[in-house]
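INTERNAL AUDIT FORM
Audit reference: QA-55
Scope: verify that the stored structure record matches its stored sequence.
Auditor: D.O.
Record contents follow.
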Amino acid sequence: MSAVARKTAVVVWGASGHARVVADILRLMGRYRIRGFIDDVNASRRGEAFCGARVLGGQEQLDALLENGFRHMILAFGDCRQRLRLAEFASKKGFTLVTAVHPRATVAGDARLGAGTVVAAGAVVNPAARIGKVVIVNTSASVDHECEIEDGAHIAPGARLAARVSVGRGAWVGIGAAIKEGVRIGSGAVVGAGSVVLEDIAPDVVAYGAPARTVRPTGI
């Protein structure tokens, strides 16, 4: 059996910018080969070459993939709520979610990473951190000791979380934001780019600034 054949085939759900990052991580890990990409947004892309593989189509392809023995998947798009919803959908169908950690990320030996989580290049996850399922710890972000990042959250590029920060389910911490130690970011909250967060942020609100202030509910 060839080295390529021994690698685990992975279906990547997503076929845009973040999918390029995830595909690169999977290949650099050396354990995976990409079976193809799922794109539910643009049906016309079916069969298109993308990142060294092909766009297979939309989620209507999932049953056929399972029937043909392809059972590993990773979700590769930024929308936190959709990532949570479709991760549950894929898992119920019978797919196993793989975790992708860039070889040049730093993850402490006792840190925990949930299924389907992506840790990008230059990111740091320090001791006793707990990272949930389908989380994104993006390029050069840092998660310090004893942080708790719940399922589906996104820690954007260059964000800095001090010790014992909690980030709720599906929350988004924007690019370059800095979060003071012990602060809680509520589920579904959005912290704007470059913000300095010194106090807790409630669930389902948008907050930004230095220091960060709540501006409005999400969805408005």
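Auditor finding: record pair retrieved intact. The CA atoms of residues 207 and 213 lie 5 Å apart.
Action required: none
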